[in-house]
Amino acid sequence: MNLREWLDKNKKTAELAQVLGVKYSHIYMIKKNIRPVPIKYCKKIVEFTNGEVTLQDLRPNDWKQIWG
Q: Measured in Å, how far apart are the chain's first and last C-alpha atoms?
């Protein structure tokens, strides 16, 4: 499941922003594919979503290069 689908389903955009220590607008830009998900947030997002959103979902083009 991609992050946008998960956030739309669970209505936790503001909570995710708080967990990551970023503004709501930052998550909004990630959600709308205006910005890629920064690598430093990926593992926290996977944990926050209880694994429903995976590293592969967050970084489909380079996840293997980053995490192997």
A: 20
CATH architecture of the domain with residue range 3-67:
Orthogonal Bundle (1.10)
pLDDT tens digits along 8-27: 999 999 999 999 999 999 99
Q: Where are the domains of the chain?
A: 3-67
Which are the contacts of 22, defined by CB distance < 8 A and separation ≥ 6?
Answer: 41
Confidence of residue 67 (pLDDT cuts 50, 70, 90): confident
Which whole-number Å values give the CA distances from 48 to 2, 65, in the listed order? 13, 23
Triad 56, 34, 59: Cα angle to 5°: 10
Q: Kindly report the average pLDDT of the chain as a whole number.
A: 94
